[in-house]
C-alpha cells in the first residue's frame, strides 16, 4: 500500500460485514479473549449498531477491507457516540488506515451534531492509545464497561 489516498472509507455495506467481524476477532483473540458482547455486536452489527443510529466504516483498497471501525449511538448522557470495534489488518498497520478510519468516524459524528465521543481500550495497545491521544481523546474514569479487557476510557469533546 503505497498511497493511502487510494484507500476509500465506505459507510456500512452488508458486503463488508464478514470483514468487520473477521478483523475484530483477529485482533481481539491475538491480545485478549473474545467476549460474549463482542460476538453479539459482530454477529448482529445491523441490529446493534446501524439500526440504533450508529455507523460502521470500512477502509477499502481494491475491494479488500484493510480496516474497520464502528460508531455506536449512546442512549446515555455522558457521550453521543462510542468509537468501537476498530481493527486494522496486520499487514497494513502503521500505514495510516486507523487514522483515516477514526477521522472519518469523528467527522461523521460531528456532522450528526455529536459533542462527545467515548472509547474504551487497553493500555497494552500502545499504538492505538497514541492514535487516540493524537486525535484529541483524553483519559477519563467513571463509566462502567461491558468488557473485561478495558483498562482505559477516553473521551473526545468536539468543538461545536
Automatic annotation (TrEMBL):
PROSITE patterns membership:
GNAT
Q: Which positions, given as ranges, span the membrane?
A: none
Per its UniProt record, what Pfam families does this chain match? Acetyltransf_1
Alphabetical keyword list: Transferase
Q: Where is the N-acetyltransferase domain?
A: 18-159
Q: Looking at the keywords, is Repeat present?
A: no
Which molecular-function annotations from GO does this UniProt entry contain?
N-acetyltransferase activity
Q: Give start-end ranges for the coiled-coil region(s).
A: none
User: Which PANTHER family does this one have?
Assistant: GNAT FAMILY N-ACETYLTRANSFERASE, LD18367P
Protein name (database record): GCN5-related N-acetyltransferase
What organism is this sequence from?
Flavobacterium johnsoniae (strain ATCC 17061 / DSM 2064 / JCM 8514 / BCRC 14874 / CCUG 350202 / NBRC 14942 / NCIMB 11054 / UW101)
